Amino acid sequence: MKKTTTPQKRDKSLVPLSREHHFGLQFCWKLRQGLRNGTDLELMRAYVHYFWENILKPHCEEEEWVLRRLLPEDSTERMRLEEEHRLLQALIALVEEGSPMNKDLFKVLEKDLVDHIRWEERELFPYLQAVVHADDLEITGKLLEHRHTVKPDTFTPEFWTSKPKAG
Predict the structure, then answer these.
(1) Does residue 88 have a pLDDT over 70?
(2) How far apart, in whole angstroms, are the C-alpha atoms of residue 50 and residue 15?
């Protein structure tokens, strides 16, 4: 008998961060498509830089801000989140340096980011909902509303939509 998983009920205070995880997964899909389509790695590097500066870096900063409010400094979950963010930042720096530029950096970045998002959605957020008092989650959610802005991905050209034209 096939086991089905039901979507987890996300506390409304965490929904803005959870929603941005969808954009992170789309970013990973775009990297996979770019590699599959044979997109120029310089263009993909420009996209990684754009996405980091405009969307992913601010998202990581907000998550760390939330966890500083909700968990003690020595919390394993908080330390793991911060460490994984540092590792993602280091990978992005390697892509941006591009020396030597190779497809494997994009593959590692894509895989590590997907794994990180899955951990947050499947383990970290349910953990927060279980251990943090509802009032603290609510207050944090209200504060997050005031500092959170949705940043759309407007990068062009959309290299992930089709293969480059033969020149």
Answers:
(1) yes
(2) 24
Q: Is the peptide bond before 7 cis (omega within 30 degrees of 0)?
A: no
Cβ pair 57, 128 in contact under 8 A: no
**Residue 81 and residue 131: Cα distance in Å, rounded?**
17
pLDDT digits (tens, 9 = 90+) for 92-105: 999 998 777 789 99
Instruction: Assess contact for 108 and 86: CB atoms under 8 A.
Output: no
